[in-house]
From TrEMBL:
Keywords: Nucleus, Phosphoprotein. PANTHER family: THYMOCYTE NUCLEAR PROTEIN 1. SUPFAM superfamilies: PUA domain-like (SSF88697). The gene is Thyn1. Residues 10-28, 56-65 have a biased composition (Basic and acidic residues). This is Thymocyte nuclear protein 1. InterPro entries: 5hmC_binding (IPR052181), EVE_domain (IPR002740), PUA-like_sf (IPR015947), THYN1-like_EVE (IPR047197). Residues 1-65 are annotated as: Disordered.
Length: 242
């Protein structure tokens, strides 16, 4: 593939113009518990339901200590602007994805345990937002779908790759990746600033974006979405930008 290790997780930085995302440590330096989120429902397509139809879905965990939200969609961050990491340009925009054979590629380079577990939870056919990150104006530009479930990320064994991990063994690989395929561009660019405005409003009135991981765990490059979060964000493409 022409762009090795292009989907970055190690050393991820907060999106520009996002004051709430100022965190001093990288997600690689503060790995999360290896707690796998389960995904149980298939994608529902281009629903346009808003927060007034919001209905929270939870499932109890095996220990009964707390309930888990059901995630069935995803948000994948990638950098659309050139940036060298150990001499390799990690740029990969949605246009780069569209230029791939069959508009399909592997989503490699994830080096955070929680993000890795989210990759491993992805199911065939589920949809995800393609999010341009670490750029002048971050936000959602398109939709992709999972076309191959998690398998070992080959870049962890490549010493020339910026995401090489000398502690990973081929008999027991630490890191995984999935294959994604371009579905379509969103009808308009949905900027982070607009999504954040809804998130803040929903925190006050109980709307579906009140716990959106884009704002509660800003540094993760792989993020799950509930059906309600996905539906609401997708509905924004039908609205005129403010």
């Amino acid at each position: 593939m022409p762009w090795p290790s292009r989907k970055r997780d190690k050393g991820v930085v907060a999106d520009k113009k996002e004051p709430d995302a100022k965190i001093t440590k990288t997600e690689e330096e503060t790995p999360d518990k290896e707690e796998e989120e389960k995904s149980t429902k298939p994608p529902a397509g281009s629903s346009k339901s808003g927060w007034k139809n919001w209905k929270k879905t939870k499932e109890s965990d095996s220990g009964g200590e707390e309930s888990k939200i059901t995630y069935c969609h995803w948000l994948l961050k990638s950098e659309p602007e050139s940036r060298l990491e150990k001499g390799v340009d990690v740029k990969f925009s949605i246009d780069d994805l569209k230029a791939q054979p069959n508009q399909t590629t592997f989503w490699d380079g994830v080096r955070n345990y929680q993000a890795r577990n989210f990759l491993r939870a992805m199911k065939l056919g589920q949809q995800a937002f393609f999010y341009h990150s670490n750029c002048k104006e971050p936000g959602i530009v398109g939709i992709v779908k999972i076309v191959k479930e998690a398998y070992p990320d080959h870049t962890q064994f490549d010493q020339k790759d910026p995401h090489y991990d000398s502690s990973s063994r081929k008999e027991n690989p630490k890191w995984s990746m999935v294959d994604v395929q371009f579905v379509r561009m969103t009808k308009r660019f949905i900027p982070l600033s607009e999504i954040k405005a809804h998130h803040l409003a929903h925190k006050a009135d109980g709307g579906p974006l009140k716990n959106m991981m884009l704002f509660t765990r800003q540094r993760l490059s792989i993020q799950p979405l509930t059906q309600e979060e996905f539906d609401f964000v997708l509905s924004l493409e039908e609205e005129k930008p403010h």
